[in-house]
Amino acid sequence: MASPLALTEFPADDTERALRFWSGLLGLDLEPRTVGEGWQTASAGPALGVHPRGRGPGDSFSLPYFEVDDLPAALTQVQALGGSVVHPGEAWSVCRDSEGSPFGLTVRSAP
């Protein structure tokens, strides 16, 4: 079974510095996003993203995003398992697990 990890997102105070860091450390090219703000890898496998730090729920810390087939059902399951939904959305949501660790969920792309 393939990993559901889709994206790890890093907020940055200085995006140029963050782009240099992640590109230099991992040898990856991060390109400007066509949808949304920031930069992201386009290679196969889980993506790495950088965006300007803001005041939203995903702007204070790095977040792993996991793909799910049914986002509303997954959000219900997060709560049933003792987690919480910080920022619900239609295409992506920010949550906390039962121990308070933040993570994101996103709708699985059609093949």
User: How do the helices and strands follow one another from N- to C-terminus?
Assistant: EHEEEEHEEE
Shape: globular
Number of strands: 8
Low-confidence stretches: none
Enumerate the strands of the largest sheet in spatial order, edge to edge or round the barrel: 2-3-4-1-5-8-7-6
- How is the main sheet built? 8 strands, mixed
Our count of helices gives 2
The whole-number mean of residue pLDDT values reads 88
Structural class: alpha+beta
N→C terminal distance:
16 Å
Q: C-alpha Rg, in Å?
A: 14 Å
Q: Per DSSP, what share of the residues sits in E-state strands of 2 or more residues? A: 35-45%
Please identify the oligomeric state.
single chain
Portion in helices: 10-25%
Short overview:
20% of the residues lie in helices and 35% in strands. It contains 2 helices and 8 strands; from the N terminus they run βαββββαβββ.
Plain-language structure description:
It contains 2 helices and 8 strands. It is of the alpha+beta class and 111 residues long. An 8-stranded mixed sheet has the order 2-3-4-1-5-8-7-6. The longest helix is centred in the N-terminal third of the chain and has 12 residues. The two termini are 16 Å apart. The mean pLDDT is 88.
